[in-house]
Write a structure and sequence with these properties.
Structural class: mainly alpha
Helix content: over 70%
Largest sheet: none
Number of helices: 3
Distance between the termini: 47 Å
Order of helices and strands: HHH
Number of strands: 0
Length: 101
């Protein structure tokens, strides 16, 4: 892989890892709040947690795909990857916002 492509891939992977770490922190905060909530609210928290965790798992899968991508596959993935991450980030934030409302 050309150095430029390799550097872009590494930067993209590191960015994805950072986003996933942020998502995990948010999930952990929601989980802690759920543990302190009453029974009725706990059910609501659990539904939102499940949605957040599904988005997190999707993100982890995308990260694995990016890490395993060959030079050619990375070039193909690079363009679609950013928009896919933006869509997943919006969906994660939407789920988090539904939880907060």
């Amino acid at each position: 892989m050309a150095d430029d492509d390799q550097n872009r891939k590494e930067e993209h992977v590191e960015d994805m890892k950072a986003r996933l770490a942020e998502w995990q922190e948010q999930i952990d905060r929601v989980r802690a709040q759920a543990e302190e909530a009453g029974e009725e609210m706990r059910e609501r928290y659990q539904e939102q947690l499940q949605e957040l965790e599904e988005k997190y798992e999707e993100g982890k899968q995308r990260l694995r795909e990016m890490q395993d991508a060959s030079e050619e596959a990375f070039r193909d993935m690079r363009e679609g990857s950013q928009s896919a991450w933006e869509a997943m980030t919006r969906a994660f934030r939407d789920a988090l916002n539904r939880f907060r409302s």
